[in-house]
Amino acid sequence: MLGVLTGIGGYLPPTVVTNDDLCSTLDTSDEWIVARTGIRERRKVADGASTRDLAVEAGKRALRSAERTTVDAVVLATTSFDRLCPAVAPEVAHLLGLDTVAAFDLTSACSGFLYGLATCNGLIATGVADSVLFIGAEAFTTLVDPDDRNTAPIFGDGAGAVVLRRGEPEEPGALGGFDLGSDGARADLLAIPAGGSRQRSAVGLGFAEVPTNEWYLQMAGRPLYTQAVERMSASSRRALKDADWAVADVDLFVGHQANVRIVQAVAEELGLPQEKVAVNIDRVGNTLAASIPLLLNDCVDRGQLRAGDRVLLSAFGAGLSWGSTTLVWPDVPVETVH
Protein backbone atom coordinates (compact mmCIF):
# COMPACT_ATOMS: atom_id res chain seq x y z
CA MET A 1 0.00 0.00 0.00
CA LEU A 2 1.16 3.50 -0.77
CA GLY A 3 0.02 7.06 -1.35
CA VAL A 4 -2.39 7.82 -4.20
CA LEU A 5 -3.05 11.40 -5.27
CA THR A 6 -6.78 12.02 -5.07
CA GLY A 7 -7.14 15.82 -4.95
CA ILE A 8 -5.22 18.98 -5.80
CA GLY A 9 -5.62 22.72 -5.24
CA GLY A 10 -3.71 25.95 -5.51
CA TYR A 11 -3.87 29.55 -4.38
CA LEU A 12 -2.09 32.74 -5.42
CA PRO A 13 -2.40 36.04 -3.54
CA PRO A 14 -4.17 38.69 -5.64
CA THR A 15 -1.36 41.28 -5.83
CA VAL A 16 0.51 41.01 -9.14
CA VAL A 17 4.03 42.46 -9.39
CA THR A 18 5.17 42.88 -12.99
CA ASN A 19 8.72 43.30 -14.23
CA ASP A 20 7.91 46.92 -15.01
CA ASP A 21 6.86 47.40 -11.38
CA LEU A 22 10.26 46.14 -10.24
CA CYS A 23 12.09 48.26 -12.78
CA SER A 24 10.76 51.40 -11.12
CA THR A 25 13.06 50.72 -8.13
CA LEU A 26 15.71 48.32 -9.48
CA ASP A 27 18.48 48.85 -12.02
CA THR A 28 17.09 46.28 -14.44
CA SER A 29 14.65 45.88 -17.33
CA ASP A 30 11.83 43.63 -18.42
CA GLU A 31 14.02 42.30 -21.24
CA TRP A 32 16.89 41.49 -18.84
CA ILE A 33 14.64 39.61 -16.41
CA VAL A 34 12.80 37.63 -19.10
CA ALA A 35 16.01 36.67 -20.92
CA ARG A 36 17.65 35.31 -17.76
CA THR A 37 14.69 33.77 -15.93
CA GLY A 38 11.63 33.59 -18.18
CA ILE A 39 9.61 35.51 -15.54
CA ARG A 40 7.25 38.33 -16.50
CA GLU A 41 5.24 38.68 -13.28
CA ARG A 42 4.84 37.14 -9.85
CA ARG A 43 2.45 37.35 -6.87
CA LYS A 44 3.09 38.98 -3.51
CA VAL A 45 1.35 38.52 -0.16
CA ALA A 46 -0.45 41.54 1.25
CA ASP A 47 0.83 43.24 4.38
CA GLY A 48 -0.32 41.24 7.38
CA ALA A 49 -0.75 38.00 5.38
CA SER A 50 1.60 35.04 5.78
CA THR A 51 2.43 31.51 4.69
CA ARG A 52 -0.36 30.21 6.95
CA ASP A 53 -3.03 32.15 5.05
CA LEU A 54 -1.85 30.90 1.66
CA ALA A 55 -1.66 27.30 2.94
CA VAL A 56 -5.21 27.38 4.29
CA GLU A 57 -6.64 28.53 0.96
CA ALA A 58 -4.77 25.88 -1.05
CA GLY A 59 -5.72 23.22 1.49
CA LYS A 60 -9.42 24.07 1.19
CA ARG A 61 -9.29 23.64 -2.58
CA ALA A 62 -7.40 20.34 -2.41
CA LEU A 63 -9.93 18.95 0.06
CA ARG A 64 -12.79 20.02 -2.23
CA SER A 65 -11.05 18.39 -5.19
CA ALA A 66 -10.73 15.14 -3.22
CA GLU A 67 -14.31 15.46 -1.94
CA ARG A 68 -13.09 15.09 1.64
CA THR A 69 -13.66 16.98 4.86
CA THR A 70 -11.19 15.04 7.00
CA VAL A 71 -7.68 13.58 6.76
CA ASP A 72 -5.42 11.86 9.27
CA ALA A 73 -2.47 14.25 8.97
CA VAL A 74 -1.44 17.64 7.63
CA VAL A 75 2.11 18.15 6.39
CA LEU A 76 3.36 21.58 5.31
CA ALA A 77 6.51 22.18 3.26
CA THR A 78 7.82 25.74 3.49
CA THR A 79 10.99 27.78 3.81
CA SER A 80 9.14 30.95 4.81
CA PHE A 81 7.87 29.97 8.26
CA ASP A 82 5.47 32.32 10.00
CA ARG A 83 7.62 32.06 13.14
CA LEU A 84 10.74 30.16 14.18
CA CYS A 85 8.50 28.39 16.68
CA PRO A 86 5.94 26.83 16.57
CA ALA A 87 5.37 25.04 13.28
CA VAL A 88 2.77 26.44 10.90
CA ALA A 89 0.99 23.15 10.12
CA PRO A 90 -0.96 22.73 13.38
CA GLU A 91 -2.46 26.19 12.99
CA VAL A 92 -3.32 25.46 9.35
CA ALA A 93 -5.00 22.21 10.43
CA HIS A 94 -7.01 24.09 13.05
CA LEU A 95 -8.19 26.70 10.55
CA LEU A 96 -9.26 23.89 8.19
CA GLY A 97 -11.35 22.28 10.94
CA LEU A 98 -8.89 19.42 11.40
CA ASP A 99 -8.12 20.29 14.99
CA THR A 100 -6.51 17.20 16.50
CA VAL A 101 -4.83 15.50 13.55
CA ALA A 102 -1.07 15.05 13.36
CA ALA A 103 0.46 18.17 11.80
CA PHE A 104 4.05 19.21 11.18
CA ASP A 105 6.31 21.28 8.93
CA LEU A 106 9.27 20.23 6.86
CA THR A 107 11.79 22.33 4.97
CA SER A 108 13.83 21.47 1.93
CA ALA A 109 13.41 24.76 0.08
CA CYS A 110 12.58 24.28 -3.61
CA SER A 111 12.82 20.49 -3.23
CA GLY A 112 10.23 20.60 -0.45
CA PHE A 113 7.38 19.23 -2.52
CA LEU A 114 9.33 16.12 -3.54
CA TYR A 115 10.67 15.53 -0.04
CA GLY A 116 7.19 16.11 1.37
CA LEU A 117 5.55 13.69 -1.05
CA ALA A 118 8.05 11.02 -0.01
CA THR A 119 7.36 11.75 3.66
CA CYS A 120 3.59 11.57 3.22
CA ASN A 121 3.95 8.39 1.20
CA GLY A 122 5.90 6.93 4.11
CA LEU A 123 3.19 7.88 6.61
CA ILE A 124 0.66 6.01 4.49
CA ALA A 125 2.85 3.01 3.64
CA THR A 126 3.69 2.41 7.31
CA GLY A 127 0.07 2.69 8.44
CA VAL A 128 0.51 5.89 10.45
CA ALA A 129 -2.14 7.59 8.29
CA ASP A 130 -4.70 6.50 5.75
CA SER A 131 -4.95 10.00 4.25
CA VAL A 132 -2.75 13.10 4.27
CA LEU A 133 -3.21 16.70 3.21
CA PHE A 134 0.17 17.88 1.96
CA ILE A 135 0.69 21.59 1.30
CA GLY A 136 3.59 23.51 -0.18
CA ALA A 137 3.24 27.18 0.76
CA GLU A 138 5.57 30.15 0.57
CA ALA A 139 5.50 33.85 1.38
CA PHE A 140 9.13 34.01 0.31
CA THR A 141 9.07 37.55 -1.01
CA THR A 142 9.30 38.57 2.66
CA LEU A 143 12.79 37.01 2.78
CA VAL A 144 14.19 38.58 -0.39
CA ASP A 145 16.05 41.90 -0.46
CA PRO A 146 13.78 44.24 -2.47
CA ASP A 147 16.88 46.18 -3.58
CA ASP A 148 18.76 43.15 -4.95
CA ARG A 149 18.21 42.85 -8.69
CA ASN A 150 19.65 39.33 -8.72
CA THR A 151 17.04 37.86 -6.36
CA ALA A 152 14.05 40.23 -6.13
CA PRO A 153 12.75 39.46 -9.65
CA ILE A 154 12.87 35.69 -9.18
CA PHE A 155 10.58 34.83 -6.29
CA GLY A 156 6.82 34.87 -5.89
CA ASP A 157 4.32 33.82 -3.23
CA GLY A 158 1.70 31.09 -3.43
CA ALA A 159 0.56 27.69 -2.22
CA GLY A 160 -0.30 24.34 -3.75
CA ALA A 161 -1.74 21.28 -2.04
CA VAL A 162 -2.56 17.64 -2.71
CA VAL A 163 -4.56 15.01 -0.85
CA LEU A 164 -3.10 11.52 -0.69
CA ARG A 165 -4.95 8.38 0.39
CA ARG A 166 -3.97 4.78 0.91
CA GLY A 167 -4.14 2.79 -2.31
CA GLU A 168 -2.56 0.23 -4.61
CA PRO A 169 0.54 0.72 -6.82
CA GLU A 170 -1.45 0.01 -10.00
CA GLU A 171 -3.97 2.82 -9.42
CA PRO A 172 -3.82 6.09 -11.35
CA GLY A 173 -2.31 8.68 -9.03
CA ALA A 174 -0.13 6.16 -7.19
CA LEU A 175 3.26 7.66 -6.40
CA GLY A 176 6.24 5.97 -7.99
CA GLY A 177 9.60 5.38 -6.38
CA PHE A 178 11.50 8.41 -5.09
CA ASP A 179 15.02 9.52 -5.83
CA LEU A 180 16.20 12.05 -3.22
CA GLY A 181 19.64 13.52 -2.63
CA SER A 182 21.63 16.36 -1.09
CA ASP A 183 25.04 18.01 -1.09
CA GLY A 184 25.65 19.99 2.10
CA ALA A 185 29.17 20.88 1.01
CA ARG A 186 27.57 23.46 -1.28
CA ALA A 187 25.00 24.73 1.22
CA ASP A 188 26.31 28.31 1.10
CA LEU A 189 25.46 28.68 -2.60
CA LEU A 190 21.86 29.48 -1.60
CA ALA A 191 21.25 30.57 1.97
CA ILE A 192 19.88 33.14 4.40
CA PRO A 193 22.77 33.55 6.86
CA ALA A 194 20.89 35.13 9.77
CA GLY A 195 17.81 34.14 11.75
CA GLY A 196 18.80 30.74 13.05
CA SER A 197 20.90 29.50 15.97
CA ARG A 198 24.16 29.96 14.07
CA GLN A 199 23.89 33.72 13.92
CA ARG A 200 21.56 35.66 16.15
CA SER A 201 21.13 39.35 16.80
CA ALA A 202 21.20 40.00 20.55
CA VAL A 203 22.05 43.66 21.04
CA GLY A 204 22.77 44.37 24.68
CA LEU A 205 23.77 40.77 25.44
CA GLY A 206 27.33 41.08 24.22
CA PHE A 207 26.76 39.95 20.64
CA ALA A 208 27.30 42.03 17.51
CA GLU A 209 24.27 43.03 15.52
CA VAL A 210 23.76 41.03 12.32
CA PRO A 211 24.23 43.04 9.09
CA THR A 212 20.87 43.78 7.45
CA ASN A 213 21.65 42.03 4.17
CA GLU A 214 22.27 38.74 6.01
CA TRP A 215 18.58 38.50 6.90
CA TYR A 216 17.91 38.14 3.17
CA LEU A 217 18.60 35.38 0.67
CA GLN A 218 22.15 35.14 -0.69
CA MET A 219 22.48 33.34 -4.02
CA ALA A 220 25.36 32.31 -6.28
CA GLY A 221 23.50 32.05 -9.57
CA ARG A 222 25.98 30.52 -12.02
CA PRO A 223 27.14 27.50 -9.98
CA LEU A 224 23.53 26.88 -8.92
CA TYR A 225 22.44 26.70 -12.55
CA THR A 226 25.07 24.05 -13.29
CA GLN A 227 24.21 22.04 -10.19
CA ALA A 228 20.47 22.23 -10.86
CA VAL A 229 20.74 20.91 -14.41
CA GLU A 230 23.17 18.15 -13.44
CA ARG A 231 21.29 16.98 -10.33
CA MET A 232 17.75 17.14 -11.77
CA SER A 233 18.82 15.30 -14.92
CA ALA A 234 20.53 12.48 -13.02
CA SER A 235 17.71 12.23 -10.47
CA SER A 236 15.08 12.12 -13.21
CA ARG A 237 16.90 9.27 -14.94
CA ARG A 238 16.95 7.27 -11.70
CA ALA A 239 13.24 7.86 -11.12
CA LEU A 240 12.45 6.76 -14.68
CA LYS A 241 14.54 3.63 -14.23
CA ASP A 242 12.71 2.81 -11.00
CA ALA A 243 9.36 3.18 -12.80
CA ASP A 244 10.65 1.11 -15.74
CA TRP A 245 9.79 3.99 -18.08
CA ALA A 246 11.72 5.07 -21.13
CA VAL A 247 12.07 8.81 -21.72
CA ALA A 248 9.66 8.43 -24.64
CA ASP A 249 7.01 7.14 -22.21
CA VAL A 250 6.84 10.50 -20.42
CA ASP A 251 3.86 12.62 -21.47
CA LEU A 252 4.73 15.64 -19.32
CA PHE A 253 7.82 16.80 -17.44
CA VAL A 254 6.88 18.93 -14.44
CA GLY A 255 10.07 20.47 -13.09
CA HIS A 256 10.43 22.98 -10.28
CA GLN A 257 9.99 26.47 -11.71
CA ALA A 258 13.20 28.18 -10.62
CA ASN A 259 14.34 29.39 -14.02
CA VAL A 260 12.90 28.51 -17.40
CA ARG A 261 16.39 27.89 -18.81
CA ILE A 262 17.05 25.24 -16.14
CA VAL A 263 13.85 23.34 -16.92
CA GLN A 264 14.53 23.50 -20.65
CA ALA A 265 18.14 22.38 -20.19
CA VAL A 266 17.10 19.39 -18.07
CA ALA A 267 14.58 18.36 -20.73
CA GLU A 268 17.30 18.62 -23.36
CA GLU A 269 19.67 16.50 -21.25
CA LEU A 270 16.96 13.84 -20.94
CA GLY A 271 16.04 13.98 -24.61
CA LEU A 272 12.51 15.28 -23.97
CA PRO A 273 10.94 17.55 -26.58
CA GLN A 274 10.04 21.01 -25.30
CA GLU A 275 6.33 20.44 -26.03
CA LYS A 276 6.39 17.92 -23.15
CA VAL A 277 7.80 20.49 -20.72
CA ALA A 278 5.35 22.23 -18.37
CA VAL A 279 6.00 25.92 -17.68
CA ASN A 280 4.17 28.64 -15.73
CA ILE A 281 7.12 30.53 -14.24
CA ASP A 282 6.37 33.45 -16.56
CA ARG A 283 3.21 34.18 -14.52
CA VAL A 284 4.12 33.12 -10.97
CA GLY A 285 7.91 33.22 -10.58
CA ASN A 286 9.73 30.80 -8.29
CA THR A 287 7.32 29.77 -5.53
CA LEU A 288 9.69 27.19 -3.97
CA ALA A 289 7.75 24.31 -2.34
CA ALA A 290 4.50 25.52 -3.93
CA SER A 291 5.93 25.45 -7.45
CA ILE A 292 5.14 21.89 -8.56
CA PRO A 293 1.58 21.56 -7.19
CA LEU A 294 0.68 25.00 -8.60
CA LEU A 295 2.05 23.93 -11.97
CA LEU A 296 0.21 20.59 -11.90
CA ASN A 297 -3.06 22.36 -11.08
CA ASP A 298 -2.43 24.83 -13.90
CA CYS A 299 -1.64 22.09 -16.43
CA VAL A 300 -4.87 20.23 -15.64
CA ASP A 301 -6.86 23.45 -15.85
CA ARG A 302 -5.35 24.31 -19.25
CA GLY A 303 -5.84 20.80 -20.64
CA GLN A 304 -2.11 20.12 -20.90
CA LEU A 305 -2.37 17.30 -18.37
CA ARG A 306 -5.07 14.64 -18.66
CA ALA A 307 -6.03 11.47 -16.81
CA GLY A 308 -3.75 8.62 -17.84
CA ASP A 309 -0.77 10.81 -18.72
CA ARG A 310 2.61 9.68 -17.44
CA VAL A 311 4.23 12.47 -15.43
CA LEU A 312 7.83 12.97 -14.34
CA LEU A 313 8.35 15.33 -11.39
CA SER A 314 11.74 16.77 -10.46
CA ALA A 315 13.05 19.58 -8.27
CA PHE A 316 16.28 21.16 -7.03
CA GLY A 317 16.83 23.65 -4.25
CA ALA A 318 18.85 24.96 -1.33
CA GLY A 319 20.62 22.51 0.88
CA LEU A 320 21.65 21.63 -1.76
CA SER A 321 18.82 19.16 -2.26
CA TRP A 322 17.02 17.47 -5.13
CA GLY A 323 14.41 14.82 -5.84
CA SER A 324 12.29 13.14 -8.50
CA THR A 325 9.37 10.74 -8.82
CA THR A 326 6.77 9.56 -11.31
CA LEU A 327 3.03 8.97 -11.42
CA VAL A 328 0.20 8.28 -13.83
CA TRP A 329 -2.13 11.24 -13.56
CA PRO A 330 -5.58 10.45 -12.05
CA ASP A 331 -8.94 11.96 -12.98
CA VAL A 332 -9.24 14.76 -10.41
CA PRO A 333 -11.14 18.07 -10.68
CA VAL A 334 -9.31 21.38 -10.27
CA GLU A 335 -10.25 24.99 -9.61
CA THR A 336 -8.69 27.73 -11.71
CA VAL A 337 -5.94 29.61 -9.89
CA HIS A 338 -6.04 33.22 -11.08
List keywords for this structure.
338 residues; alpha/beta; Peroxisomal Thiolase, Chain A, domain 1; 5-stranded mixed sheet; 4-stranded mixed sheet; 13 strands
Major sheet: 5 strands, mixed
Overall mean pLDDT score?
A: 94
Global shape: globular
* Order of strands across the main sheet: 1-7-6-4-5
Rg over C-alpha atoms, rounded to the nearest angstrom:
19 Å
Helix and strand pattern: EEHHEHEHEHEEEEEHEHHHEE
Count of separate DSSP helical elements: 9
**Could you tell me how far the N terminus lies from the C terminus, measured between alpha carbons in angstroms?**
36 Å
Which range best describes the helical content: under 10%, 10-25%, 25-40%, 40-55%, 55-70% or over 70%? 25-40%
Strand percentage? 15-25%
Oligomeric organization of the protein chains: single chain
Number of domains: 2
* CATH architecture descriptor text of the largest domain: 3-Layer(aba) Sandwich
Parts with pLDDT < 50 across at least 5 consecutive residues: none
What structural class do you assign from the helix and strand content?
alpha/beta
How many strands? Answer: 13
Q: So what's the CATH class of the largest domain?
A: Alpha Beta
Per the CATH scheme, the topology name of the largest domain is Peroxisomal Thiolase, Chain A, domain 1
Within CATH, the superfamily of the largest domain carries the name Thiolase/Chalcone synthase
Domain Beta-ketoacyl-[acyl-carrier-protein] synthase III N-terminal: 104-184
Pfam families: ACP_syn_III (PF08545), ACP_syn_III_C (PF08541)
Enzyme class: transferase
Organism: Kutzneria buriramensis
